[in-house]
Amino acid sequence: MKKYIILTLLIISSVFAKAQDDVYPTKDFKGKLFITNGTVHVGNGQVLENATIEVNNGKIVQVGTNVSVSQDAKVVDAKGKNVYPGLILSETDLGLKEIANGVRGSNDFLELGDLNPNIRSIVAYNSDSRIIGTLRASGILLASVTPQGGTISGSSTVVQLDAWNWEDAAYKMDNGIHLNMPTFISRPNRFASFFGLLIDRTDPTKQALEKVSELKSFFREAKAYFEEPTHKATNLKFEAVKGLFDKKQKLFVHADQVKQMLVAIDFVKEFGFDVVIVGGSESFLIADLLKQNNISVILQQMHELPATEDDDFDQPYKTPAQLQKAGVLFAINDSHDESRYRNVMFNAGTAAAYGLTKEQALQAITLNAAKILGIDDRTGSLEAGKDANIVISDGDILDMRTSIISKAFIQGREVSLDNKQTQLYERYKYKYGLK
Amino acid sequence: MRAFWLHPPGKLFFIPAFLLIGFFSIAQQPTFPVNGVADPRTGTYAFTHATIVKDGQTTLTNATLVISDGKIIAAATDAAIPKDAVVVDCSGKYIYPSFIDIYSDYGIPTPERQRGGFDFRAPAQFNTNTKGAFGWNQAIKPEVNGSKIFVVDDAKAKQLRDVGFGSVLSHQKDGIARGTGVFVTLANEKENLVIVKEKASAHYSLNKGTSTQSYPSSMMGNIALLRQTYLDAQWYKSKPASEGLNLSLQAWNDNQGLPQIFEANDKWNDLRADRIGKEFGVQYIIKGGGNEYQRIDDIAATKATFILSLNFPQAMDVEDPNDARFVSLADMKHWELAPTNAAAFEKANIPFCLTSADLKDVKEFMTNLRKAFDYGLSEGKAFEALTKTPATLLGVYDKVGSIDAGKLANFLITTGPIFNEKTAIVENWVQGDKYAVKEEEWNDVKGTYNLVINSSAGSSNYTLDVKGNSSASVIGKDTLTTKFSFDGKMVKLSFSPSSGKKPAMHDTTSQAPQGRGRFGGGMMKGGGASVLLSGVASGNMWNGNGEDTAGNRVIWSATFAKAATAMVDSAKKKPSPKVGKVLYPFDGYGWEELPKQENMLIKNATVWTNEQDGKLENTDVLIKNGKIVQIGKNLSDASAKTIDGTGKHLTAGIIDEHSHIAASSINEGAQSVTSEVRIADNLNPEDINIYRQLAGGVTSSHILHGSANTIGGQTQLIKLRWGVDDEALKFKGADGFIKFALGENVKRTTSSNNNRFPDTRMGVDQVLVDAFTRAKDYENEWKNAEANNKKKGASPTVVRRDLELDALVEILNKKRFITCHSYVQSEITDLIRVADRFNFKVNTFTHILEGYKVADKMKEHGSNASTFSDWWAYKMEVQDAIAYNASIMQRVGLNVCINSDDAEQARRLNQEAAKSVKYGGMSEEDAWKMVTLNPAKALHVNDKVGSIKVGKDADVVLWSDNPLSIYAKPLYTIVDGTVYFDTEKDEAKRKYVSEERNRLVQKLLSEKKSGGAMVPGSPSFHVILSCGDHEHHDGLITVDVSADDDNSSNK
Fold first, then answer.
1. For B899, left (φ over 0), alpha (ψ -120 to 50), or beta?
2. What architecture is domain A87-378?
3. What are the φ and ψ backbone dihedral angles of B358, each rounded to 5 degrees?
4. pLDDT tens for residues A260-308?
């Protein structure tokens, strides 16, 4: 009986110690850290059995099977476990959209206006979003926070998911400009479709091309604007896209249809932008063309229905393998609004079930994502010189049976895996007296 | 007896009778005063020497038709010709009864829907806007009387007469109950005289048309409204004082004796309509939608007579492969096969009428009819479908539909067999009045004529070679450029005597052998000047006046010399066009022949029994006659096909407790209580998501009403038997369930102008209490009435049957079970307390993301729980959702299921179940039960499915791997011992889709090359229905329709 009371007290104290507002960002870790004896999935396709990772002041010093462990260092034994690079969400409204529906005040992801290159997601990023903790607990440590709306939505910023505020969180500021390619299909009004009035008379191709021509004018005029060093009137929108011309930013073109992507290719040809397709439902149809034009792809949602009723039922699942075969650089994302982006590793797992190797699938949510977001010099793989963004899983991280995360490190700091959900879990285990 | 169709028209040349007949009216209405001098006529005519096709059976040659006073007096080879008859020689002509269009709105205005239309988010309109002593629902208007709103419209009538129609059944095409149709002729007379039958039919549909009232807002709501109206009308016969005068119900009852015509417009709607009719002892005549050939056996089983339009889909332009991709194979196949529809009816021996309704232009009628002939329809059947069949259905065969004495003088005079491509309808006589159609065709003008032109300078002779009514050439020495037109009476002719093409025209003209004098004028003016002639036909001679090239007056005549040499008869029966096969379902992944039940022995698999035995390694399972008959080692059975299960996992099929696939509508959100609507009324067995989910190992799905209202509709459990019809899709012998919902959706949280009670959870509570209070009172009312009615001599008490309350009484009596959409602990507890108060159980709480907070209460109440694995934060009421929910509820002792509520997620329910291994450390076998045995229990079908146990249905899946693994894929999905999915068959289907698409794209391209009319290849949007609770992960051309969807701000 006494034992029971003590146990209960322990549980209570742990509940209070871990109340949501007490889940702290971890202080910087200075010094050495060794993660020993794990199966290290480097992120570039390599797997090292029984390997040790040496970290110093947040950076990976070396990874290998012959690493000697210093006495005074922090040591994490990963024997029998899998060690991965921190997973990356390549495009998300995390921190901008807390409650998706019905609570307007919690939403900061969609701005008014059509051409908004000057809109910056980072300034609205809520580093205290309760969703962030659930992602860390899944091994997702970095995310590219992206605004929506309009034809040009603005710039995204890559954040690390353990921060006091947005300045703290920013990992790569304003890494790219996001453009929504106009659609070449006119979708029927949902109410009209209810009444069987599926045919829309407007010509979507014509409308799309008009929009594209408007976009091109914008970029042509921006380019001309940069030729002249002084301006009587400063144009903030033009200034905002300078990075595209300097190749310091990428142009993320949100497009699913072939025709939309063909227009994106034309953008590469005319302006020489670094173009990334975001969405890419139909990218499998033009994989070779994308490769030829050096266009990379963020596959937005693996778990979706096939685009047409005649498509193979597993088309979305096998698209990654088709891109891989063509040599296209691609990342796999998770934009699922109901599970709130915590399943990016399972999206990759599905791709592994349908044609990718497991290491290729892992690469699509680590190193490839880092390359596409322009952060591969700092993260994306467990290699010397990079940030120690590391996840330890009990087993295969891509399979929900074994994807149980025991530790995660961001820049060498061991971050908390507690979050609102684990706390509620503890609270109600306590209520029902469950262990 | 089909000879009359086949005779080619004779080359005959007779006195053009039309010259003798002017248009006049024989109609004289006694009550109408005459302004002027009375002009009474009998309109007696005798049409002699005609081939008279009296009806489909009898054809008379060289016969006489006598009409008088608008009626047929005689039609016989030896008919006496009255002395006062105008005799019209019809040698070479055919006379047919004119056609009847049974599905017209000729002369009746269709009300316009007010634009802006119906919007789910707009404030609701709860009652009818129709003023007067009518019923509650604006879409039920049986009181509309076609004869009272019918107005003769000769412009419209002419269009119909020109293609051969003489009479039509006309009604107002608006609403679910549309009132009565009026049978009229197409004569241009006062309405009083053209109405043949004032009330000839009663009309219905599944489309509420211009009604602005919110209810019904769904297919199943339409059907429920019809069902309730039948009951109300029955009850109204008892003259209930509480209802007062209800002109709608009164009219409904009055109309029941008439032929009942239902516009269904689609193969599944045909069956739905037929069923609702049969429920109340009514056999509808069904207006089809042109896709009936896709389910002709089901259609035949209705025993209904059908009305078929000849509105075929237009060819799609698929030249751009990026556009073509979005045109579905099903749409392309329908384009190819639609013209076979009528032939399919004929072959299946289903009676039908043809209508010109739905054609973009009535002129297409004959063209499309001939297309139907090309695709196998017989001309005899078509003739019947346009004459006798509709006339008999409407009880007017004594007046129209054949050429018989006593009937209306409604007939066609044609130049040959009516359906021949070369035949023209010359005249269409309606009620004894002549309406010219193509009078110029009365005579076959083709032939050569001697043309003589006289001027003061002398006369010139030419040969005139007439090739048709607008084509002829004048031949001098050479053939001269000629313009010609003949309208049956007047002739216009111009030609250039010196052919402009020839450089040496001077010589040519001057040396013209027949040209005497200076006629021609070409010598003066040079080439190109024309001789202009105008004249009139009179017998076999034309004459008139004109001017020569110099402008001098001339007179001319042309005398018939020689008939044109008969053209080679091109009417050789064209071979029927080659078309693809019908698939079941009509989808690329359908079957040419449905898969059959097989005996199967699955050898050496890891068997997840879900029973005490747990997981059995290296085990065999024998399936026979759709059941699991043996589980063990080293089994053998000679009758069974062996499937090697080595290294593979055999499980019970997945059961999805919460799904919205395979239905034509999901939400009837117009009222807060709609327990009368039934998903079962509107199943769609052709939803491609059935096949996709079979590929994910699902064998049964519980199709729920949406969450738009507190008390939603009755649900339907189905088995995913891909290819069967809607009835066969149902899970037989399962208990009935009903969907309830609580919280944000039912209080319309995101609507800024909600006027539908309730608007808070406090109101939701009262909706429930009120509904069950009414149900209790209703039940007592029935009991009291029944007790009273048993007493001798008591005047019988009649209680109105209320389908909404019937369903709630079933709940009270534990004959129907609730699955309730719910999230937060307050509302869960409240529903439990309401249930306690009314002494019923809430069978299942579905979604239930805060179930972990009140798991003890749910356990005590005895509810099941069906939840999502890891969803949260997509709206306010799911802020506290946790991925550990299933684990906690399971450990507290609840029967927990994981459901999809999403057509995509349903393909991966095994993975969703596996997440409880990650979150909360559930054992793998327990996790697996959450998508198999546990939902079977929650749905009361665990005696039939949910585990691998001898005696249960053979609904099993063979997986490539541990079924909880993300790497696992179904290799075989078996329902009732029938393999509905396997990887080999899927491979074959993919190949078929690709080849068949290619064949049809090529066919469409050649159609375009040959100049066929094309429409742009527009995407075959796939409408997906959902509960409206959250976003879905649909394909590019999917349209998500949900009745209370408020997510439009999202993207």
1. beta
2. Alpha-Beta Barrel (3.20)
3. 75, -10
4. 999 999 999 999 999 999 999 999 999 999 999 999 999 998 899 999 9
Write the pLDDT tens digit of every residue in A174-227.
999 999 999 998 766 544 444 444 445 568 889 999 999 999 999 999 999 999
| pTM of the predicted structure, to 2 decimals | 0.91
Min distance B915 CA to chain A CA atoms (Å)? 6
CB atoms B117 and A195 under 8 Å = yes
d(CA B342, CA B386): 13
Domain A24-86+380-417 top-level CATH class = mainly beta
Q: What is the topology classification, in CATH, of domain B99-113+129-400?
A: TIM Barrel (3.20.20)
Q: Which of A92, A286, A309, A403 to mutate to test the interface with B (most CBs of B within 10 A)?
A: A309
Instruction: Give the DSSP letter of residue B741.
Output: E
Residue of B268, B1036, B1045, B1051 to mutate for A, most A C-beta atoms under 10 A: B1036
Euclidean distance between CA atoms B601 and B637, whole angstroms: 7
Of B28 and B855, the one with more pLDDT: B855
Please state, as a whole number, how many other Cβ atoms lie within 10 Å of the Cβ of residue A225: 16
d(C-alpha B843, C-alpha B862), whole Å:
7
Q: In chain A, what is the straight-line distance between the N-terminal and C-terminal CA atoms, in Å?
A: 15
- The CATH 2.40.128 domain(s) of chain B lie at 447-563
User: Does the distance separating the beta carbons of B891 and A309 come in below 8 Å?
Assistant: no
- Residue spans in chain B of domains classed CATH 3.20.20.140: 99-113+129-400
Which residue out of A193, A289, A313, A422 would a mutagenesis test of the B interface target, given it has the greatest number of B Cβ atoms within 10 Å? Answer: A313
State the complex-level ipTM.
0.94
Distance CA A431, CA B8 (A): 94
Q: How far apart are CA B177 and CA A101, in angstroms?
A: 39
Which fold does the domain B447-563 belong to in CATH?
Lipocalin (2.40.128)
Please answer yes or no on whether A100 and B1018 come within 8 Å at the CB atom.
no
Contact A432 B997 (CB under 8 A): no
Q: Which fold has domain B1-32+40-97+401-444?
A: Urease, subunit C; domain 1 (2.30.40)
Q: Give CATH 2.30.40.10 domain extents, chain B.
A: 1-32+40-97+401-444, 594-653+946-986
Q: Which of residues 567-606 of B touch A (CB under 8 A)?
A: 587-588
Residue B1: strand, helix, or coil = coil
Residue of chain A nearest B925, judged by CA positions: A401
Domain ranges of chain A: 24-86+380-417, 87-378
Chain A: closest CA distance from residue B781 (Å): 39
Note whether B1037 contacts A185, CB cutoff 8 Å: yes
What is the distance between the alpha carbons of residues B712 and B614, in angstroms, rounded to a whole number?
38
CATH code linked to domain B594-653+946-986: 2.30.40.10
The tens-digit pLDDT sequence of chain A (435 residues) is 444 544 444 444 444 433 357 788 999 999 999 999 999 999 999 999 999 999 999 999 999 999 999 988 999 999 999 999 999 999 999 999 999 777 889 999 999 999 999 999 999 999 999 999 999 999 999 999 999 999 999 999 999 999 999 999 999 999 999 999 999 987 665 444 444 444 455 688 899 999 999 999 999 999 999 999 999 999 999 999 999 999 999 999 999 999 999 999 999 999 999 999 999 999 999 999 999 999 999 999 889 999 999 999 999 999 999 999 999 999 999 999 999 999 999 999 999 999 999 999 999 999 999 999 999 999 999 999 999 999 999 999 999 999 999 999 999 999 999 999 999 999 999 999 998
Do A257 and B322 lie within an 8 Å CB cutoff?
yes
Instruction: In whole angstroms, give the CA distance from residue B446 to residue B865.
Output: 84
Residues in chain A: 435
